[in-house]
Hints:
This protein is an all-alpha fold. The protein folds into three domains: about 1-70, no CATH class; about 75-115, no CATH class; about 165-200, no CATH class. About 55% of the residues lie in helices and about 0% in strands. It has helices at about 35-45, 50-65, 75-95, 105-110, 115, 130-140, 155-160, 165-180, 190-200. Helix 1 packs antiparallel against helix 2 and helix 8 packs antiparallel against helix 9. About 0% of the residues are buried.
Amino acid sequence: MADRPGLYQEPDNYFTGGSSTASGASRRTLRGGRLDTALNAILVAEKDVAAALQKVEEMATAAQKVPRLMIKISVAAQITALEARLEALVEDLRWRKRIVGTPLTVEEILNPPEELEIGENPYKFDGDAEIVAAAKHQLAVEHGEITVIEIDSDEEEEDDNTPQATSGEVRSLCEKLEALCVGHGGSLELQTQLRQFRGALR
């Protein structure tokens, strides 16, 4: 077999079942880069697994000591100029005493820490069926098929703070309403209902 770079050369007796000798002609050799070096080290060890593992560990340790390539992306000149301008404006405001306390850095101004905080997800679904139902409901609301009534939290608090009337006050109110119903002929049914309600309160 002719020698070609990057390919190993088989000994003449490799496929005939012959035993390999210690000479360089009988060993499979590799030519090329680091991969060839690693494979050559293993092939030279032949059936000695311990020697092959030791050689691989030595090469791995040596590879870890090789300095890694550091890629540094340069910042665009326009961004640098804008950041410098922003710093100058902040310094001007501080000099004019328009900033109370420690002024923010450019990073804090451009990326406020509050925006980095992820709040709780308002949507909590147990499965695909609930997601589909919620999507259909939202579409129905957008098309006007469903009217959503929003309750103001202030109104709820006012309702909670409303003082409760005592049973005596309710009975007195019913008596006054019954007296008013006497003057209106069409309110006989309301008067009867008020009397029954006042009797139930006793």
